[in-house]
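Student: Hello, beginner here. Can you help me understand the protein record under this note? Any guidance would be welcome.
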Amino acid sequence: MLRLKFRNCRLTSTPSRNYIHSNAVRSNLHSTNLKLGDLSKSGRIEEARQLFDKMSDKDEYTWNTMIVAYSSSGRLSEAKHLFHRNPVKNTISWNALISGHCKNGNKDEALSLFWEMQFQERSFNEYTLGSVLKMCALLVLLLRGEQIHGCTVKTAFDFDVGVVNGLIDMYAQCRRVSEAEYLFGTMSGERNNVTWTSMLTGYSRNGFAYKAIQCFRDMRREGTQPNQFTFPSVLTACGAVCARRVGVQVHGCIVKSGFKTNIFVQSAVIAMYAKCRDLATARALLQDMEVDDVVSWNSLVVECVREGFKEEALSLFRRMHERDMKIDEFTLPSVLNCFATSRTEMKIASSVHSLIVKTGYGSYKLVSNALVDMYAKRGTMDSALKVFERMVEKDVISWTALVTGNTHNGAYEEALKLFCKMRGDEGGVSPDQIVTASVLSASAELTLLEFGQQVHCNHIKSGFPASLSVDNSLVTMYTKCGCLEDAEAVFNSMEFKDLITWTALIVGYAKNGKAKDSLEAYKVMIDNGIRPDYITFIGLLFACSHAGLIEEAQRYFESMRTVYRIAPGPEHYACMIDLYGRSGDFAKAEELLNQMEVEPDATVWKAILAASRKHGKIETGERAARTLMELEPNNAVPYVLLSNMYSAAGRQEEAANIRRLMKSRNISKEPGCSWVEGRGRVHSFMSEDRRHKRMVEIYSKVDEMMLLIREAGYEPDVSFALHDLDKEGKELGLAYHSEKLAVAFGLLAVPDGAPIRIIKNLRVCGDCHSAMKYISRVYLRHIILRDSNCFHHFRDGSCSCEDYW
């Protein structure tokens, strides 16, 4: 029996041995997992992987540790590979991979995993939602964020403080402040430091500075302590509205809270004082810092540039250089911006460029873009182009800087060519609102209506929100192309209109012969509380001078000085003198000339000369012409007009003397040139031009035209022809003026019903003006002729200028 019992004991001892072995295995796995975790956390991922591969036993912790290690270090392909091999996936595995994709901005992968997780009925948690919401906030993915918000409501996570904090941040980053406010308001007693900071930052970033300041006050009142993330946002809000007193109080809170040594908080304090134009305090804080921190110095440099203290910014930059501070890619763009907008010598700008090359920052896109912009704004387009061409990667800012630079420097054709390259295969970059506005301005200056319309269409298709600068450029472009209906349509569609908008319309009406509409627009502008400026009054007085509205012009000229305190410039005096001169009141014109508070420039004397020619006032015309010859020695206009005045008065010898004087000084008259846009091409013509491939048809059309309008009552005005020809020669010469060739081509090429648009580089002569009226009536066409002075809209035998141009 004893032996039997012994055997029984032996039999029962077997399970006990298995138990001990199992515990030993678990203990070994636990210690190996700990070592694996230590290697992963210390960044020794290769060693961790070697250990992982050697492990015969792996549990959830083992797999998750390795997936987290790969995801955290950005090695997502390896993390994904392990994830799919993992036989024991749980929420942590999914979170690790989703979080890794979110941190790296892989929105499609992250969201795909998130939806797949739900499809497989895996339970996500607050950490999953936090990662995805943070990505939606950073990448401004509003629609995806709203979908995830729906998931939080369905799964009751909308009561979790961390998740709601993520939703508030997401909505604030996506500029949906009202939704963020609603969520914030529903939390009441559950708000923590992150909640308040998210809401406050949302207000600050979206331009609600006063709400941000009030939010900070409420946060303090409820006893929640701000931190290093809260203070910069409220300081930014203070700076945005120059609330220096509040900023000083926040500064006090920072000192009491122990955050005054935090670099980011210090930078925000310095920036706040600079924005509030308290440079003395900002400099003092910078000097008191224990170490020279480049972030804080950069902050002051940036704010000095933004607030217009260019010299102060350059002085800070020099001191940074003298102190051997590490000047970085954030310092340099601000400094280059100083050179772009100040009169600092170009040598200093070139030396900074040399420093950029030496330090290797020339390869940084941010710095290269600033260089292109600086050179373009200084008018040295060759240097701008060299920097641009050396750039390996060009973005929309690079192209915009170059295109805008060409537009500002009058190289309009080059600006349009670059814009086409930007959108084509060479650039492959979609234009933004800034470059669109610039290209529309270039189109306006070249009067390229079809091109401008294409840019307008592309802008609409792009889906960009309404832009005041683009809309203003559209109004200007359409008015400068003589399309008042389109300009009015854009103007009426604008939700917000500023002074530039109204001025563009006022000047546009004036230039297109709509003087009454121009004055009416001005009245509505004043009724809307918008104050006119220097340019507005040029448009108003131009409208009056080209419509003979003497009383109205006198009233505006007086209100300009007495009501709006705007000192009249040469352009305003030129309009008034032109008005008096056109009406034949030379006494008033002379009186105003003598009363001018500024030195009369060429514009004023040209107005006097033109009026003298019109009314045959040779003595006044001689004085104006002689003065113009001194002011603009290479300008042929005073010579030509004075010669014509002598010829018209029968003083041929004196006319010949002026022509000889002109020849002796090597001054040549600019040849008249007219061009018309048709079928995507610009066709140019000069007087008696025979270069066009359809010239036979064009001359035949001219002959037909002249015959028909003569039958309708047209008589050639030979006073505008060359004086050394007989009557027949003069009439023939007039028939082949450039604008008549252009309109003949327009009749052949422009479809019936469409306006014929002609541009001329000089003022249209009286004979061509008369002929255009008859042509518009005989052929039932709307002819729009823009000369160097204004637009002429010919319809049914009359002109919009009412023969007063």
